[in-house]
Write a structure and sequence with these properties.
Blueprint: H1 5-21, H2 32-52, H3 59-78, H4 81-102
Length: 103
C-alpha cells in the first residue's frame, strides 16, 4: 500500500519533531515544555512541507530552503543561529533525500 505525500510528510514531520525534542530535555531553558513544543512544531512543519512542496528543484535543495526559512524565526528569537539553522537545514536535507528515495 502506497501512502500519499501528505501522510508521508506527516510521518516525516513527527519523526523529525520527536528527534528535535530530545536535546531540549537537557537544555538550560527556563520553560522546557514551551521550548520542546516550539521545537516540535517547527521541525514537524519542515518535514511536512518538504514532502508536500514542489519548488521544481532537487528534493534535498527544497528541504534545505524550507528548513532555513522555517528555522530562521526561532534562530532570531533564541539568538542560537548556528545550532537552530543547522538542525533545520540538516533535517530538511534528510527529509528531502528520504522523499527522493521512497518515490
Amino acid at each position: 500500500m502506497e501512502l500519499n505525500i501528505v501522510v508521508q510528510g506527516i510521518i516525516a514531520g513527527i519523526a523529525f519533531g520527536v528527534l528535535a525534542m530530545i536535546p531540549k530535555f537537557q537544555s538550560g531553558y527556563e520553560n522546557k515544555p514551551v521550548a520542546m513544543t516550539v521545537s516540535f512544531i517547527n521541525r514537524f512543519a519542515i518535514g511536512l512541507l518538504t514532502f508536500t512542496a514542489d519548488f521544481n528543484l532537487y528534493s534535498w535543495l527544497t528541504g534545505i530552503i524550507i528548513g532555513f526559512l522555517l528555522s530562521l524565526p526561532e534562530a532570531i528569537f533564541t539568538k542560537d543561529y548556528r545550532h537552530v539553522l543547522f538542525m533545520g537545514m540538516l533535517g530538511g536535507l534528510i527529509c528531502g533525500e528520504v522523499m527522493w528515495i521512497i518515490r
